[in-house]
Design goal:
Length: 57
């Protein structure tokens, strides 16, 4: 898996894709790099969730 693609509705399957994608990437990373990477990714996902909440209101 070279690029992660999630659906517009961001469902359970997307979360599973993210976990698999990250596990493959994190094999070669230090614990500190993994934590930094997770924080960056979480910020992107939280922003997408906020946008979808605004769109559904």
């Amino acid at each position: 898996m070279t690029k992660l693609i999630v659906s517009n509705d961001f469902n359970l399957e997307d979360i599973q894709k993210i976990r698999e994608y990250n596990s493959l990437r994190h094999v070669q990373m230090t614990p500190r790099e993994i934590i930094e990477d997770a924080r960056k990714g979480a910020a992107v996902i939280l922003e997408r969730l906020r946008q979808s909440e605004k769109a559904s209101v």
